[in-house]
């Protein structure tokens, strides 16, 4: 399906999807290693349930589908770009076992509500992200943004600096 080599583009090289996902995985794992240190009294990773749970987050009369992998925090919140959904991170989440990981679908994507007259704006995406973080009571979080979710994540971080452990941006 995906090729794990660099695809030639006239005058430059462009990474394949697998190479880009590998880079994202490495960056998230590196950030988790330095930012998400387990306290000495925490249980070993093997005792942390490995299952991801679907949680419905209310926002403006609609529902946002959020997927939570339990673990130690701060939570790693993975935001998808467009036209994607939370499945963008299906290969990343298992590699972060032992850490609290949240993926979600912005409104009108994936399993989230699809309001008919909803307009896509960075402010709307920021409100979706805020609903997820507040609805799950995450506190400080490692924010990971891909593609079109970058402006929403950066704006949320600027509005809530005390709740940001670190930010990882990718495209």
Structure description:
The protein has helices at 17-35, 122-135, 150-159, and strands spanning 7-9, 12-14, 53-59, 62-69, 71-79, 98-104, 141-146, 164-170. With 171 residues, it is α/β, with parallel strands linked by helices. The strands form two sheets. Strands 3-4-6-5-7-8 form a six-stranded mixed beta sheet, sandwiched between helices. The protein has a two-stranded antiparallel ribbon with strand order 1-2. The longest helix is centred in the N-terminal third of the chain and has 19 residues, at 17-35.
Keywords for this entry:
alpha/beta; two-stranded antiparallel ribbon; 171 residues; 8 strands
Radius of gyration: 16 Å
Return the string of H and E elements.
EEHEEEEHEHE
Structural class: alpha/beta
Strand order, largest beta sheet: 3-4-6-5-7-8
What's the assembly state of these chains?
single chain
Biggest beta sheet summary: 6 strands, mixed
Taking pLDDT < 50 over at least 5 consecutive residues as the criterion, the unreliable ranges are 1-10, 33-49
Overall geometry comes to globular
Binned, the helix content reads 25-40%
Tally of helical segments: 3
Tell me the fraction of residues in β-strands, as a range.
25-35%
Give the strand tally.
8
Distance between the termini: 20 Å
What is the residue-mean pLDDT, rounded to a whole number? 80
């Amino acid at each position: 399906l995906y090729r794990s080599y660099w695809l030639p583009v006239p005058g430059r090289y462009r990474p394949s999807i697998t190479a880009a996902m590998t880079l994202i995985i490495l960056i998230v794992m590196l950030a988790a290693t330095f930012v998400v240190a387990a306290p000495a009294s925490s249980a070993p990773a093997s005792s942390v349930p490995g299952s991801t749970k679907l949680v419905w987050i209310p926002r403006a009369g609609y529902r946002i589908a959020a997927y939570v992998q339990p673990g130690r925090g701060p939570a790693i919140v993975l935001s998808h770009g467009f036209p994607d959904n939370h499945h963008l991170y299906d290969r990343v989440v298992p590699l972060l076992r032992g850490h609290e990981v949240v993926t979600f679908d912005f409104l009108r994507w994936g399993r989230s509500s699809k309001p008919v007259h909803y307009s896509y704006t960075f402010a709307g995406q920021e409100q979706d992200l805020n609903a997820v973080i507040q609805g799950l009571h995450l506190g400080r979080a490692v924010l990971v943004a891909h593609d079109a979710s970058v402006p929403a994540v950066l704006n949320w971080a600027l509005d809530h600096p005390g709740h940001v452990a670190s930010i990882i941006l990718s495209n």
